[in-house]
Backbone:
């Protein structure tokens, strides 16, 4: 047994492993980015994390923190070896503090489980990534996750009150408190959030909760093209309505939706926008009618969903759609690349057109759907994974999609993160001098560069 | 003329001054913190700011950026001399971009003027500090300002999409873009926001707008004590309602309100909570009735305001109340100290009681009012400014109020900032090790420490 393993064993016992089988399981997240860890460590408390980071700093061992491994950019892939720190075992809901409108959690708590626990109290934690059934709060914080409802409710960052963070040298700090509002010093909470584990390891978080809306309504609209659809979206906002979701689905996406569930009554003769509103019963009815009225002038069709049952069916199908292309062509698999670009919302129609051109030129089918209300377009590219030529074309398509978004003043990731998969675009997106500021912060906080090295173009 | 003055003149012409009269005007903001600048400089564009910061870095001259000087913690007071950089002249609204739900402004734009320009388009910039008629967007960003409506709408930070920042060495960076949502690297936007000018000078900002609500309703409730009032507030949130304002006013505040405007029908026999809801006409009616229903069980009185006119009168009086104590006692003046503490919202009743004790013991009258929905209590202390003993007692009272908030897990500033006035409390509030992280970031970004030195316990 190596000296390192001996030292780790002493602290972690059977919660450290160097077996090939186990290391292989932790070699990647849900992306194509691969690495091979030397050790897998499963801490049970903050003190253990602190001990480990101090040890790894002293011995220059890279540490890659990991939640559920649902990330799509290689953020949790140990590309420089070293330790994968599996935080999923620290999964207690520490305190539901209704009187202060907040909940304290360990980072391994799964998003849906948190919401299950909050529901009886009339509250919820709004960020809703597609992976909410599996992903952990720690991962959501580290990637600033969101989802369909961020157009109204914002991203994970909007709900962070306090983080307990272990720094690279083992020091344990808190970045906030139970106070809902504070203007006192640098916003370290939002600096560590979205840092993808490159500045510290989050070991506890205080989260603000939101009141559960009493009612939801869904308006299904269909337009002859994405430009018209985009104009309708702006008209809705200008009318004083903030939808709780505002999703665009292209023709191909609608076809796949129907193949998932033939009962789903989604139009398929144009670009569809699903507007959801939530709140009081009275206002959702009023707003749904207003949206219908606004869209009717420009739309091919407009319909308010009949019932909660229909709404649930549509959203369930929408949630599955990214993975469901194989219903149309069983020989093809969706690969997550170029899947999370964002642009100023007025550019969404141009981006959709551009993706269509890229898809046609390279003969790689592309489903286009996403959160038009905040400019986030999800592109689903599909290939026969046994075909090397298609892999090459896929990489080329993803690269062109990323560059198209940047040319439109956009981002290569709206909600999935940069990790290693998208790191090459960061200098262009941020500008070299802004990146230098990031790098100087990284050096100041993690001078030995042990925390998740090889990510974020640092 | 000194060599420094010669160099400044060459760039800024008559927009630099070293006259005693002018320097004296820039010696302080709206707080008690004093300093004396050597030069006052009024830049007209980003390049000039860049030139100045490079020059000051090379010559080790402190630079204190300043907006309208409405700050209450000495953030804009040049405590180490050097240059006061008056940004109020860079006051253009660069672009109102409705199609992307945002507005681009220079930092000197005054908050109310921005909202005047957005209103015809059906949008607004929600943060609403009491000084909105004068304060600048740059100052609001640097202090993460907010106000009554942050309980629903959040703080300035929630509306920042992009900042143009000049670093200490003159480099110009941008921290974001026109994209509404991005998960791509460190959140430099929110790091520079709230940094009170210690990390860079903000020269342009992209701000997200919110749709103007169509309707507002106000519910006036009165409780026998603050504890009962606090419980009612939590019941309202738990019922799925997020009020757009949720203000507590103690008996003394209500008396002063009535002296400002005898027509204002605010109860004065207990602790008053003003609940405002906004949104669609139908939902505000529904929610106002629900709030009334919930509060009726525990309140001494509950009433929904009759008309928009009555609402406007009450809010106008509420906005004036902090400065209006002299109506009760013309010999006394409000001094802003200990005026912005925050605690977890369940502790607001205890904090009110504690402030009452401090006020009684030191015989310094205290009005207590504030944003109970986010735990922010404004305390207005009043003294005869000609009386040295009262000044001593005032300082003691403010110190005890700050310490009381900290003992309850709170903050010495919820929305006004730390500056120099509250810097001594930061080590206790944040913890020494968290403060060390702040200091290492400051050193990394402004190694010569020229930017607003002497603030934030850096």
Residues:
């Amino acid at each position: 047994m190596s000296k390192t393993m001996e030292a780790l064993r002493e602290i972690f016992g059977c919660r450290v492993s160097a077996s090939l089988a186990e290391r292989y399981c932790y070699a990647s997240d849900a992306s194509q980015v691969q690495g091979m860890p030397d050790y897998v460590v499963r801490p049970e408390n903050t003190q253990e994390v602190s001990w480990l980071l101090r040890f790894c700093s002293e011995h220059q061992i890279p540490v890659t923190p990991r939640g559920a491994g649902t990330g799509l950019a290689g953020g949790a892939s140990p590309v420089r070896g070293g330790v994968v720190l599996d935080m999923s075992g620290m999964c207690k809901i520490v305190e539901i503090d209704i009187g202060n409108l907040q909940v304290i959690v360990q980072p391994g708590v799964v998003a849906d489980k948190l919401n299950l626990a909050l529901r009886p109290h009339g509250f919820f934690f709004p960020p809703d990534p597609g992976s909410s059934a599996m992903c952990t709060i720690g991962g959501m914080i580290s990637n600033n996750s969101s989802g369909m409802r961020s157009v109204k409710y914002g991203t994970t960052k909007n709900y962070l009150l306090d983080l307990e963070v272990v720094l690279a040298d083992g020091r344990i700090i808190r970045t906030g408190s139970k106070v809902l509002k504070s203007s006192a010093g640098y916003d370290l909470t939002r600096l560590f959030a979205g840092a993808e584990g490159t500045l510290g390891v989050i070991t506890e978080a205080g989260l603000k909760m939101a009141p559960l809306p009493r009612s939801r309504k869904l308006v299904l609209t269909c337009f002859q093209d994405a430009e018209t659809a985009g104009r309708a979206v702006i008209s809705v906002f200008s009318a004083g309505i903030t939808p709780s979701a505002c999703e665009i689905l292209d023709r191909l996406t609608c076809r796949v939706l129907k193949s998932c569930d033939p009962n789903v009554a989604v139009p398929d003769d144009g670009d569809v926008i699903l507007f959801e509103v939530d709140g009081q019963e009275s206002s959702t009815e009023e707003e749904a009618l207003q949206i219908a009225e606004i869209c009717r002038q420009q739309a091919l069709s407009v319909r308010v969903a009949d019932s909660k049952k229909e709404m649930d069916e549509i959203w369930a199908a929408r949630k599955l759609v990214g993975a469901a292309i194989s219903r149309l062509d069983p020989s093809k698999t969706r690969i997550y690349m170029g899947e999370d670009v964002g642009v100023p919302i007025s550019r969404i129609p141009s981006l959709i057109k551009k993706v269509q051109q890229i898809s046609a030129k390279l003969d790689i089918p592309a489903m286009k759907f996403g959160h038009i209300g905040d400019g986030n377009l999800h592109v689903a590219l599909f290939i026969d994974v046994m075909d090397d030529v298609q892999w090459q074309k896929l990489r080329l398509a993803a690269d062109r999609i990323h560059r198209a978004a940047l040319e439109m003043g956009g981002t290569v990731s709206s909600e999935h993160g940069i990790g290693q998969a998208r790191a090459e675009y960061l200098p262009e997106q941020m500008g070299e001098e802004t990146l230098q500021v990031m790098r100087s912060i990284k050096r100041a906080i993690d001078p030995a560069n042990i925390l998740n090295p090889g990510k974020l173009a640092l």
